[in-house]
Amino acid sequence: MLGRLSPVIFGAIPLILALIQVNTYVAPVGTTTTQLLLKSDEYHVIDLSLNPGDRYVIEVATSGLSDVYVIEANHFHHFKETGKPPSSAVAFSMVKSLSLALPTNSGGDYKLVIKQLKDGEVKVTIKHGLVEEAVSRMRKGESVLRNSLVAELPPGQVYVIPIYQFVMGTQLEMEVQRVEKAAVLSFSEYLAYRRGSKSLEALCVTERCISGSGSLKLSSGDFGDVYVVVHVTKDVAALNLRVIATPEMLLYSGTCG
């Protein structure tokens, strides 16, 4: 499984990515880059300390294959004891490259964990920024990338990626190669699929479903969550996802005034 992705990443704790109001403080400046060479089963931990109103952008790229976790510092003992992230963690598996925004209105201490699945070089870039900077860009008419993921998916499994708070003004772009099926399901559709009352084939709506290889682009017309479900059968599949916040999100949330 690709793991259960929390609202902080492929969605937002009600619009926190671009819409919260913050207090002014002196923000960290610049970008930090870490170059690693990791063997299979090795992991590297980077401490993250965010102040209220911070919006860090973390980028991970590897010549191998990685799992990437963001774990609250006070839950890190679970990972150390079991080798697995706690249920509260943000978890991405089979990663070739990843860009994720970490916005917060309360601050907090976190552990960024890179766990290597296949030997390779790993580059981690952390860009320090503020939520208010993203809001300002959107008020000027720019779109803001929430998150992007490029993954390499082994055959014989089903991968589920929740995209929480797929609110109005949000766009989802997906490209897949060599899948059996990849579909974007609403919450009710996903429940029906998970309970076994409907198959992915039955839920495969043309504009939200790909067989084999292809791409799609969706714009949200609602305020619900959606779920990307990917069936991989014979070959190693490739998945590319992007979640984008457009300026229209500000109109729907009433924060432009």
Provide a quick synopsis of the model.
The protein is an alpha+beta fold.
The helix content is: 10-25%
**Separation of the first and last Cα atoms:** 42 Å
Classify the secondary structure makeup into a structural class: alpha+beta
Measured by DSSP, the beta-strand proportion falls in over 45%
Would you list the SSEs in sequence order as H and E? HHEEEHEEEHEEEHEEEH
- The general outline is globular
Q: What do these coordinates show?
A:
This protein is an alpha+beta fold. Helices cover 15% and strands 50% of the residues. The protein has six helices and twelve strands. It has helices at residues 7-10, 16-19, 76-82, 131-139, 187-195, 248-253, and strands spanning 31-38, 43-50, 55-72, 90-103, 108-118, 120-127, 144-153, 157-163, 170-186, 209-219, 226-232, 237-245. Strands 1, 2, 3, 4, 5, 6, 7, 8, 9, 10, 11 and 12 form a twelve-stranded antiparallel beta sheet that branches. The longest helix is centred in the middle third of the chain and has 9 residues, at 131-139. Residues 1-27 have low confidence and may be disordered.
